[in-house]
Specification:
The complex is a heterotrimer of chains A (304), B (277) and C (437).
Chain A lengths: L15 H33 L17 H7 L4 H29 L7 H9 L6 H12 L6 H8 L7 H4 L1 H26 L3 H9 L4 H12 L1 H16 L3 H6 L11 H8 L6 H31 L3
Chain B lengths: L3 H33 L4 H4 L13 H9 L2 H32 L4 H11 L9 H10 L6 H25 L3 H9 L4 H12 L1 H17 L3 H4 L8 H7 L8 H26 L5 H4 L1
Chain C lengths: L4 H18 L1 E8 L2 H16 L3 E8 L1 H13 L7 E5 H9 L20 H6 L1 E2 L2 E2 L2 E6 L1 E6 H7 L9 H11 L7 E4 L9 H11 L16 H17 L9 H9 L3 E7 L2 H5 L11 E5 L13 E6 L7 H11 L2 H11 L10 H5 L1 H6 L3 H10 L23 H16 L5 H18 L5
Parallel strand pairs in C: 1-2, 1-3, 8-9
Antiparallel strand pairs in C: 3-11, 4-5, 6-11, 7-9, 7-10
Classes of the chains: A mainly alpha (304), B mainly alpha (277), C alpha/beta (437).
Chain lengths: 304, 277, 437
């Protein structure tokens, strides 16, 4: 059957019934997510405009943008926004770069590859709270942690991670949890790389680096884009790790937006402000997504 | 001079060693946690950290005595598998349509789906709690299944979309020419090709649901509490707890770890385009 | 078919359904501290004597539990029948009518046996809203062996200045022996509990009579400077992220010469199964400085029945059982006499056997008797509470201030800066909550 492939998509030249099927198949998800998004969002919007504290029931007057104003003028807001950005970008870079390198590393068969693969993915199986506690008390603790013992073995003074490098410590913990995610996705994607292409290139005299740069990497472009998009969404609202280890401190060093909402609003059960903070976080997330899409959006929907 | 074969083998050996090294470093904290689960509380916090010690099963014994592990584990299983199943039903159909019936709206729909995850859970706790209360979903497995399906759906759609995009349309054309319906297309042709992608999406959804520790704690009491609640009950009490926490975490992630090990073979099964062509 | 089968089946079905209806489920939310875990383990005894009551447990860490319970009770979620709450919540929630007042207790319960300060802390306008499970104050722990070696003597109630002198002598970081261990981790119930009592001892208070915060005053400056200096120079590394548990672990592994913290630690530090210095611990009251007021804090974990519960009677029955003298005897039988929940009943401390077996008991009782939430500051204050202020906004305010204090301790900002930030953020919050204009 001669079907002309147009640029905008094959939908237009389909037999009439098919586009309806397409619509029908995507509708359930869209409808479900629409309702899921709309109702809590509407409630959040409403709550953000009134004075609503769980501990002061009945005192629900309309206060306009007061909640937003209060949240934005908090001494920790600037730090919170900045830390969120730093956390997201650092973990993204670390996990994607490591993910690609590790995925390539385990692509060629070697002894015990299956076990290695499971070990590489394993941190993602652990609950974030537990990971944070294990890192904080068993590994990073300056008195009894494993790293402290190693430092002392080499005669150096152990680093007090959560006092001197709190953000770095959090980035370390979060990156450790998300590298396996990138590895998982990229490892699976690399499997679909056509071996013939690589062999052809090798026959042409291309070295491993060239193969990596010109064949492997472009093939991984779309999975990398997916990893970046998904991780960004999760990393924007990292909460458990900060709550368990530093409590946002010292000062505002490790407070991100999600934690700010918690300590500013939730801790005193101020639903109005928590809602305002949530909406502000949505705005910021949208800005981040917009920028990201500008940068990598094309890769997502390009033809294979 | 080495022969090509010898240099290839050396290369494989070097790469293999490097891979093992990286894997061991990444795995180390988990190994340490596993080790700690067999220590006494004093040993767990000892300085310098003890690699060799007298192992004990007292932590596991206490967990067994104190809590009903299987109640929590069963809840975790029901909620994770339930939400993954429901999510995959919705996601596969959505991704199929978006990958093969692409319209100008596809990219925006994808992005919009992801944006439903932009509200930090802490900001939306009370509205959701009120909703669940009004619908009688508090402390029910159904409630958790619903919310997990909803929060994982965007991820599943994205991932399946990516894997479907890799498939050349000709394959589906061939099936359609043979008179297959859309459902048959998906079931008989598409999914078998995407086994790897399918498996990793399912695994990811399972892990995300299994370890989700915000809603699972806030929306349940005792009937529907999954393993995350069990782990939380051992976390940060007054007094030494690291050995016990290590033990309960090991028990909590053991099922999913085992499942992951079993399914990793599926994950890495090569896609042989040759067979399809 | 046997003619009697159907009636038998029906009778059985009815019996089962009646039995099922008769079984009341009581959902209990509690903290995962040792005493509560023991309560959970012993609850089988209660279920034996009350076969129509079934207990379901939700056990969580303190902060998570508090959030969970507050969300539920404020939204009238009705998920819990019995809640384990502290002094802080009882006053606030009782005031709002969210808790069922405790009335008509059996005489054998002996309400008069409960420590007056604890009972008062759990009442609002004379009505009791929760039954105390255990209570604590704060006190000083020191290594009697190290003191003897260095020829030092610990008075019944030292001053903070004296404590600093002691810490200086005993601080030997090269040998992993640190002079003074104190809470440094940010949190309203973590470092701020300790720092507030220290500040009280230095004559400071959180708010003046018009609810204006006093961080810009000289008392807070003295207190915070002292704290940062003491813990920074004579404390362990990582002090600014050490909470109760971390300090307990340090003390138990012999790394702290001095420690000021909750009286409940007494049973942990003298327990040979978790402490390497179990027989070397000395006890004294929490330090004073310019005043004795508010030197040791008061906290109690109590069992309360929310107004939304559908099993109030059953819940109250369990709460009565778990805080009774009979329960204490049961704990003694199964876990030893030192495991009796401390701080709630005078009869515990009248018991000779207990006082002998528990070396920490005497100081605990003294500390508890001195703790008065209504008179905790040198200058008069508009609030009740020793290490806390019984207003709903306090959790958030104190956690933020706690971060500033931890920041000063970590050397991230000066004491001046930290005080300034604390003052401005507290003022801001108080204005928003409409306490001050």
């Amino acid at each position: 059957m001669a079907i002309s492939k147009t640029e905008t998509g094959v939908g237009k030249v389909r037999r009439p019934g098919k586009s309806r099927i397409g619509l029908a198949m995507v509708s359930p998800s869209v409808v479900v997510l629409l309702v899921w998004m709309a109702v809590p969002l509407a409630m959040t919007l409403y709550f953000s405009l009134i004075r609503y504290n769980l501990l002061y029931p009945g005192d629900n007057e309309f206060v306009g943008l007061e909640n937003f104003h209060f949240f934005l003028t908090d001494a920790g807001f600037a730090a919170g926004a900045w830390n969120t950005l730093v956390l997201v970008l650092s973990v993204l870079v670390i996990s994607v770069v490591s993910g690609v390198l590790i995925a390539v590393l385990v692509d060629t068969p070697f002894f015990g590859r299956g076990l290695v693969r499971v070990m590489l993915i394993s941190p993602f199986f652990i609950m974030p709270t537990v990971s944070a506690l294990v890192w904080k008390n068993l590994i990073l603790h300056p008195v009894s942690g494993v790293l402290a013992a190693i430092w002392r073995f080499f005669g150096a003074e152990p680093i007090d991670w959560f006092t001197t490098y709190p953000m770095e410590a959090i980035i370390m913990i979060v990156a450790w949890q998300w590298i396996p995610f990138a590895v998982l996705l990229l490892m699976t994607a690399i499997q679909s790389l056509d071996q013939e292409q690589k062999d052809a290139a090798r026959l042409d005299g291309a070295g491993p680096l060239a193969i990596f740069w010109y064949i492997t990497l472009p093939h991984l472009a779309r999975p990398i884009a997916v990893v970046v998009m998904i991780e960004t969404i999760f990393l924007l609202s990292i909460f458990a790790e900060i709550f368990t280890t530093t409590g946002g401190g010292p000062g505002y060093e490790t407070t991100n937006l999600a934690f700010l909402i918690y300590s500013q609003a939730l801790l005193q059960f101020d639903v109005g402000m928590a809602s305002a903070g949530g909406l502000i976080a949505v705005v910021i997330a949208n800005i981040a997504a917009f920028i990201l899409v500008r940068m990598i959006g094309k890769t997502l929907t390009d033809k294979a | 001079m080495m022969t090509l074969k010898q240099s290839r083998r050396l290369q494989t050996l070097l790469l293999g060693t490097l891979a093992w090294l990286v894997a061991l470093i990444i795995f180390f904290p988990i190994f340490w946690m596993l080790l700690t689960s067999f220590k006494t509380e004093i040993d767990a916090f000892a300085s310098p950290p003890q690699l060799f010690f007298t192992p004990t099963l007292e932590n596991y014994a206490e967990i067994d005595q104190r809590s009903d592990y299987f109640h929590y584990a069963w809840n975790s299983v029901v909620v994770s598998f339930g939400s993954t199943f429901l999510g995959m039903l919705l996601a596969v159909s959505a991704a199929y349509s978006m990958a093969f019936f692409e319209t100008k709206r596809t990219k925006n729909t994808l992005l919009w789906m992801l944006s439903t995850k932009m509200l930090p859970p802490v900001g939306v706790l009370v509205p959701i709690y009120l909703l669940f209360k009004d619908f009688g979903l508090l402390d029910t497995r159904l409630g958790l299944v619903i919310i997990y399906t909803l929060i994982n759906l965007p991820i599943m759609v994205w991932m399946m979309y990516t894997y479907f995009k890799e498939i050349p349309k000709d394959i589906l054309e061939a099936a359609r020419l043979d008179g297959a319906s859309a459902a048959q297309e998906i079931y008989r042709v598409l999914l078998p090709i995407c086994k790897g992608g399918l498996a990793s999406t399912i695994l990811l959804s399972l892990i995300l649901s299994w370890n989700e520790a915000f809603w699972s704690l806030n929306l349940t009491a005792s009937s529907a509490a999954p393993l995350t609640a069990l782990v939380a009950s051992y976390s940060s009490p007054e007094g030494l707890f690291w050995a016990k926490l290590s033990a309960v975490s090991t028990l909590a992630c053991a099922p999913i770890l085992v499942f992951g090990w079993v399914s990793q073979k599926q994950l890495v099964r090569g896609l042989s385009f040759g067979a399809v062509k | 078919m046997d003619k009697r089968l159907i009636p038998t089946l029906m009778a059985t079905a009815i019996t089962f359904s009646v039995a099922a209806q008769a079984a009341t489920t009581v959902t209990i939310g509690t903290v995962n501290n040792g005493d509560m875990i023991r309560m959970q383990e012993l609850s089988g005894e209660f279920e034996k004597t009350h076969p129509d009551i079934q207990l379901d447990w939700v056990v969580l860490e303190e902060n998570v539990l508090r959030q969970r319970l507050t969300t539920d009770i404020a939204t009238k979620g009705g998920q819990f029948d019995l809640m384990t709450i502290g002094l802080y919540e009882t006053g606030i929630w009782g005031d709002r009518g969210w808790l069922t007042p405790i009335e008509n207790l059996p005489d054998s319960y002996d309400l008069g046996d409960i420590l007056p300060s604890v009972r008062e802390g759990l009442s609002v306008q004379g009505k009791l809203y929760a039954l105390p499970f255990y209570a604590e104050s704060s006190m000083t722990y020191y290594r009697a062996d190290l003191f003897e070696e260095a020829g030092l003597e610990m008075p019944e109630q030292p001053t903070w200045e004296q404590m600093r002198e002691f810490a200086k002598v005993l601080h030997k970081p090269g040998q992993e022996q640190y002079g003074m261990c104190l809470r440094g981790k940010a949190g309203w119930g973590e470092n701020m509990a300790l720092v507030t009592t220290l500040a009280n001892a230095f004559g400071a208070r959180w708010f003046d009579e018009q609810w204006r915060p006093e961080f810009s005053g000289s008392e807070w400056r003295n207190a915070l400077t002292f704290y940062v200096d003491l813990l920074g120079n004579y404390g362990p590394p990582g002090a600014s992220s050490n909470g109760f548990n971390e300090n307990l672990a340090l003390f138990n592994s012999g790394k702290c010469a001095l420690w000021v913290d909750a009286t409940v630690a007494g049973s942990f530090v003298t327990d040979t199964s978790q402490s390497q210095v179990a027989d070397k611990v000395g006890f004294a009251l929490a330090p004073k400085q310019v005043t004795e007021k508010g030197a040791g804090w008061l906290w109690s974990w109590a069992l309360a029945v929310p107004a939304t519960s559908d099993a109030k009677e059953a819940a109250l029955a369990f709460a009565t059982w778990a805080t009774s003298k009979e329960y204490a005897a049961l704990v003694e039988q199964k876990y030893g006499i030192t495991a009796i929940p401390p701080g709630t009943r005078l009869s515990t401390y009248d018991n000779e056997a207990y006082m002998t077996a528990a070396p920490f008991a005497e100081s605990t009782l003294k500390s508890l008797k001195r703790a008065d939430p209504n008179d905790s500051t040198l200058k008069p204050s508009p609030y009740t509470g020793i290490q806390l202020v019984s207003i709903p906004e306090f959790q958030s305010i104190a956690t933020q201030v706690g971060k500033m204090v931890a920041g000063a301790l970590a050397g991230q900002m000066t004491v001046e800066q930290s005080l300034k930030q604390s003052q401005s953020l507290t003022e801001r919050e108080m204005k928003r909550a409409r306490y001050i204009k």
